[in-house]
Amino acid sequence: MMGARQSTTSHHDTFQVSPSSDACSTSSSTYARPAAAAHSAGNNSSSSSSNAGGGDGYHRSNSSGSSTRPVAATRERKSYAVAAGRSAPMRSLSPAHPSAVMSGMDDFLRPDRFDRIMQMTKPDQFIQEQHSWNPEDRSLNIFVKDEDKFTFHRHPVAQSTDCIRGKMGYSRGFHVWQIEWPERQRGTHAVVGVATKNAPLHAAGYTALIGTTDESYGWDITRRECHHDSKHTMTWRYPFSNSRDVYNVPDKFYCILDMDEGYMAFATDDEFLGVAFRNLKGKTLYPIVAAVWGHCEISMRYLGSLEPEPLSLSELCRRRVRIEMGAQPEDHIEQLMIPPILKRYLMYQY
């Protein structure tokens, strides 16, 4: 296991994308459609008086519709601006968006190193504790439980968004940790991701705090959208390949951070959800979550890491073939005039 290494944050160029296109969302995390906004505000107000804690009245995302790459449209944002009698502001594509960099990788390709870590023996208890929540790096409305160092509890404070970072920052290597966050304890905003030491840990009101600045990267698992510097750039739908109208993130899921390739992805026990963020190289990033639900308890378990290593020639060839096949490579691989054993290899069926 390696400790945190400080590194200089690299500058990323941005380019303009029309907010009316099907590419990206066009506002910060606190948006809602006019009717939904009123409904959400009313529910949040009533829940504050009854449960005194954190967006309890709006449990699941009101957004619907599937999304495909490069990113999903967020017509809600545009219609909200039109209803307010103004045009939606022009925002640039986030440098952390997977489409903002030519990675030469298939963003939907399940990493081989993820499977290797999942098959490894879990780290010893004391190593897992070294990578657990940091009781000294949190909002004052959060505390790490004495009897369970892997779980924190959030006090029922109304109109407050609260974060906690992990103890260990990562600047190299491939890392996996599991988050356990009961769906009934998420509220209007439930955000997971990574952040630098400079990212804020508290904000007034209910917001997707992680990803509002360029110091953090957050996936709001309630609203199913990603944020990075969202005060100035567009948010985007995630998972990209989700074809269902509503995707409910399960109570347990996995965070995958590859600081060698410079990306973060997520997975469940059933599927790999794809790359959510890119352009992470040159930073030291810590696991982080932001919660608004009163009395919520969120656990993190570090599952292991792998040191940088070169890819085999066969793996490089497989990646190249799958990238050339497009977004749904399996459909095209079946039509290739090659031996069945090679087809199975290309589809990771071995």
Model description:
The chain is built from 7 helices and 17 strands. 41% of the residues are buried. The radius of gyration is 20 Å and the shape is globular. With 350 residues, the protein is an alpha+beta fold. Strands 3, 6, 8, 9, 10, 11, 12 and 16 form an 8-stranded antiparallel sheet that branches. Strands 4-5-17-7-13-14-15 form a 7-stranded antiparallel sheet. Strands 1-2 form a two-stranded antiparallel ribbon. Strand 10 (216-220) and strand 11 (225-227) form a beta hairpin. It is 19% helix and 24% strand. The chain has 2 domains: 1-6 and 13-309, Jelly Rolls, CATH 2.60.120; 313-346. Residues 18-51 have a biased composition (Low complexity). Residues 111-307 form the B30.2/SPRY domain. It comes from Caenorhabditis elegans. Residues 297-350 form the SOCS box domain. Residues 1-104 are annotated as: Disordered.
Q: Count helical runs.
A: 7
Give the number of DSSP strands.
17
Calculate the terminal CA-CA distance, rounded to whole Å: 30 Å
**Largest sheet composition:** 8 strands, antiparallel
What percent of the residues sit in helical stretches (DSSP H or I)?
10-25%
One letter per element, helices H and strands E, the order comes to: EHHEHHEEEEEEEEEEEEEEEHHH
Q: And the CATH topology of the largest domain? A: Jelly Rolls
Query: Unreliable segments (pLDDT under 50, ≥5 consecutive)?
Result: 1-53, 56-84
> What is the total number of structural domains?
2
What is the mean pLDDT? 78
Shape: globular
Structural class: alpha+beta
Examine the secondary-structure arrangement and name the CATH architecture of the largest domain. Sandwich
CATH secondary-structure class of the largest domain: Mainly Beta
CATH superfamily of the largest domain: SPRY domain
Rg estimate, integer Å: 20 Å
Strand content: 15-25%
